[in-house]
Amino acid sequence: MTYPLIVLPFVVVTLIVTLVTLRRPRFRQRMASSALTALVLVGLTLVFDNLMIAVDLFSYPQEHLSGLKLGLAPIEDFAYPLCAAFLVPALFTLFAPLPSKDTA
Questions:
Q1: Are 21 and 30 in contact (CB under 8 A)?
Q2: Within 13 A of 6's CA, how many CA atoms are on the CB side?
Q3: pLDDT of 88
Q4: Residue 60 in contact with residue 20, Cβ under 8 Å?
Q5: What does the pLDDT look like over 73-85, one tens digit per residue?
Q6: Based on the number of CB atoms within 10 Å of its own CB, is 90 exposed (0-12), middle (13-18) or buried (19 or more)?
Q7: Beta strands in the chain, from DSSP E residues, in sequence order
Q8: Other beta carbons less than 10 A from residue 47's beta carbon
């Protein structure tokens, strides 16, 4: 099994759960916050994955990778921080009670 196939279910679940929250309040603000968070997490992943791979803390079998890399880090490594940045807020939104329409 290749790493892109391992990552695919996480990406699909993230996309579905995020889209389910489309009609919830403050969707645009949540997406903007998630995008900023994703940018920071991808930046940290870029730096630290490259450092850890460079000092041989771990390696990846080449036959399981897509072949695309950012520095030494395979592109598949960046799916997890992206999923976390969008899935966690979407789940919080789904599990939060909807605001009451009563103003009493």
A1: yes
A2: 11
A3: 97
A4: no
A5: 899 999 999 999 9
A6: buried
A7: 69-70, 73-74
A8: 12
Of 82, 75, 73, the C-alpha closest to 52 is 73
CA neighbor of 18 nearest in space, from 6, 36, 30, 8: 30
Phi, psi of 70 (to 5 degrees): -115, 105
Three state DSSP letters for the chain: CCHHHHHHHHHHHHHHHHHHCCCCCCHHHHHHHHHHHHHHHHHHHHHHHHHHHHCCCCCCCHHHCCCCEECCEEHHHHHHHHHHHHHHHHHHHHHCCCCCCCCC
pTM of the model: 0.84
User: How far apart are alpha carbons 11 and 39 in whole angstroms?
Assistant: 16
Asked if residue 83 lies in contact with residue 91, where contact means CB atoms within 8 angstroms, the answer is no
What phi, psi does 72 have (nearest 5°)? -95, -15
